[in-house]
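lol ok so funny story. i was supposed to be doing the assay writeup but got distracted and ended up predicting the structure for this chain instead. priorities right. anyway since i did it might as well share w the group, maybe its usefull for someone
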Amino acid sequence: MKRLTFLLVALATLGGVVAFRAPASGQTDAEAAPSYGVKIPPGYRDWKLISVAHEEGNLNSFAAVLGNDLAIKAYREGKLPFPDGTIIASLHYGHVSSEENNKVFGRSQSFVPGSPTNIQFMIKDSNKYEKTGGWAFAHFKDGKPGDEALMNTCFPCHNQAKARDLVFTRYAP
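and the output, tada:
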């Protein structure tokens, strides 16, 4: 009986260690995005907030725009171009009306993030991504990268923001 109890405790402990060490879904085990070979950076959800975005029209989304330490430092110092190693993440969610909040306000005025739609990354490496202004672009939905055709639309759009090193988002301290 003691052996069986010991074996069960050992298996439970081993299972707990394995579960604890496994990365959270969608964090780091995602496939690499085509064209650039970018994977989801570990720990990106702990980065600092750069700004928020609201896109209307077909996208109808909210986004939290986050940056790694290099991005935040460059934004705070007003440094352009961004230094190599800068990573900017944009976490997009559907834009939905909050009926619960609207009841409190007495009218329709409150909107909240709905379901997640995608995560986008810009990664600065002037040498590796010289052909695309020094930036790699990545798009993930449910941990799966966007297809190559989608990725090929990023640079032409961002290239229109050359004066800001291809970055649309401004810092909102």
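The chain has five helices and six strands. The CA atoms of residues 161 and 167 lie 6 Å apart.
back to the writeup now i swear
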